[in-house]
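The authors assume throughout that readers already know how a fold can be written as discrete tokens. A single example would do more here than another paragraph of explanation. An entry of this sort, consisting of the sequence and the corresponding backbone structure tokens, reads as follows:
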Amino acid sequence: MIRSLTLLLSLVIALPLWAAEIRVQPGSGNLANAIAGANPGDVLFLQPGRHIGAVTIDRPLTITGTHDAIVDGAGQGTVITIDASDVAVSGLTVTGSGLDSQELDAGIKILKKADRALVEDNRVLGNLHGVDVHGGHDAIVRNNEIEGTQQRRMNDRGNGIYIWNSPGTVVEGNSVRWGRDGIFSNTSRKGTYRNNLFRDLRFAVHYMYTNDSEVSGNVSIGNHLGYAIMFSNRVVVKDNLSLSDISHGVMLNYANNADVSGNLVRGGADRCTFIYNAHKNLIYDNRFEGCNIGVHFTAGSERNVLTGNAFIRNRTQVKYVGTRDIEWSFEGRGNYWSDHPGFDLGGDGIADSVFRPNDLMDHILWSQPAASLLTGSPAVQLIRWGQSSFPTTLPGGVVDSAPLMSPPVMRVPPEYTAMEAKAVARRTESDIDDFDINDLSSH
């Protein structure tokens, strides 16, 4: 009881005695005038209607209302700029930013030293960038509906949520659609990006130089790429869904010491997972299903551990070209392979025979695609039979010494399955004519 009374008293003392609740009528300039006349701690309730004009919040305030209260930037610059600590913007519709990519025009922008900003339960529609966290620490961007622009060229659009040099940012529970990247996190650290839904984008989550952070529980549906972790260290990527993304589900590009677990990638991506020059990553208990390539493993990636994963009905389970064997089991536990005809006479869930996902003919086909015309020939079948009978003739490659007999089961909620079906149905070649996954300079 004493502790509760002490806490209540401290909260009362912390509140400004002059805090007021102010109702702001729609119109041009009314919101800017209300901000200029408000005291720190005041709450501005925006009345339904259109509040015209870009505004800057330069003191600790709460700006709130219903979605019928529309803050419209009229196509000029950023609609709402937060330039003070402890500001909250909630419950509004924010639209009408400019389209200047050099100035990073946005629906809501959080500037440097504008710490502990809260952007919650807003509809942020038709802006170049949705929410730009640009230097403020410990921001929370939560439960917003963000829809970007729909220019024909995807690279001309802005990001749903752009995070630059903003440690401690939490992005959770948002729905992001259209635009370029759902979350683009650049030169930041200690962020948490969880339980968001991404659709009709280039990348769902795009990391550049973002360390010591977490991407968890997110859903990527029908995007060009799900989760791109690039030039970043010590990132946790767990329990995410990539459903019918086009190019990649999960990509580790110059990413080290990551923990990648519990993710599901399914539905026709070119590569479920791409590991490029990425080292000392722990990749376990993921399910990679129905892709052209299950895992493309290349560019000297070293000291990675892969265990407990499932590779199911991928056209090529693993693409790896090398001169030495790489073991993909850990402490007696390997991975599940849908094309491994193994037996488990001991009943311990581990197959009795070693599995190699690639053979000499795979290496020939990767380096000489024209040789695919001979795939069904008796000579090729004889070579493959000989390698299975005499393993010493096999080239270097992935070896799983303890393959699993059953895969992890991951259930997808029916509402996401319905969204996935719609995304696949409307996909056309014209949707991707400006997208090049190898153009890593276009961020």
Remarks:
- The chain has a mean pLDDT of 88.
- The helical segments are 2-14, 30-37, 360-367, 378-389, 414-425.
- DSSP finds five helices and 41 strands in the chain.
- The CA atoms of residues 112 and 135 lie 4 Å apart.
